[in-house]
Amino acid sequence: METKPVITCLKTLLIVYSFVFWITGAILLAVGVWGKLMLGPYISLIADNSTNAPYVLIGTGTVIIVFGLFGCFATCRGSPWMLKLYAMFLSLVFLAELVAGISGFVFRHEIKGTFRRTYTDAVLNYNADDEASQAVDNLQHKLRCCGVYNYTSWFASVYYPSNGIPVSCCFNSSDCNPEDLRNATIAPSKVYHQGCFELVTSFMETNMAIIAGVTFGIAFSQLIGMLLACCLSRIITANQYEMV
Fold first, then answer.
1. Is 167 left (phi over 0), alpha (psi -120 to 50) or beta?
2. Which H, E and C letters describe the chain, residue by residue?
3. How far apart are CA 149 and CA 226, in angstroms?
4. Which of 131, 160, 174, 241 could bond 236 through an S-S bridge, CB–CB 3.0 to 4.6 Å?
5. Contact 241, 7 (CB under 8 A)
6. pLDDT by residue for the chain (244 residues), tens digit each?
């Protein structure tokens, strides 16, 4: 078998792979920016403190974009040491994604516990004005739920004595008034009965296997890039091939 056609084939495959890898980085970067701009309040309900998850995605996406371009450049140049460096980076990405996927799946119950604790705190200290309170309102309105476990969660909040249950719990906001929402007898007929915690955690449980599968799939795809980069580097080194 001639060496040059093999090298050309490997280069083509690695360039295609690097382009797909670059697209993955661009998607992570876009998701990170979107998460920071649009999901900041919701993320604060899941984490005890301000989470750096959006920044991690932005940073990871940026690094992948840079190394994706580096992979294309190394492939076109046919530089063995560049290809080895690219393979090393892919191995680090593989290990990081593998650890992240396993950690998320193993510690999913801790994530649920943290969400229960932070969401309960947001409900108890609700004031209708701060970021956490607005996130609670949006969550209740969009998911059509009320309180942590049900509408009775609001009875212990600092907001309830003077304002009652928030309007975001109502079936029809135009049919809710503060007097009715402060009345423990009338309010149940005007608000959602299902708690938000159950809806959110059910969604997490239902989709955790899918999320884990996608994560592991992306992680193991790095092995393809590693294999291509190592094979190309080895063949070029063995045959002292140079791109003119």
1. alpha
2. CCHHHHHHHHHHHHHHHHHHHHHHHHHHHHHHHHHHHHCHHHHHHHCCCCCCHHHHHHHHHHHHHHHHHHHHHHHHHCCHHHHHHHHHHHHHHHHHHHHHHHHHHHCHHHHHHHHHHHHHHHHHCCCCCCHHHHHHHHHHHHHCCCCCCCHHHHHHCCCHHHHCCCHHHECCHHHCCHHHHHCCCCHHHCECCCCHHHHHHHHHHHHHHHHHHHHHHHHHHHHHHHHHHHHHHHHHHHHCCCCC
3. 48
4. 241
5. yes
6. 457 788 888 888 989 988 988 888 888 888 878 877 766 656 666 655 555 667 777 888 888 889 889 988 888 888 888 989 999 998 888 888 777 777 766 766 777 788 888 889 989 999 888 888 888 888 888 889 999 999 899 999 999 988 889 999 998 878 888 888 888 888 888 899 888 888 888 877 776 667 677 777 777 888 888 898 888 888 888 775 444 4
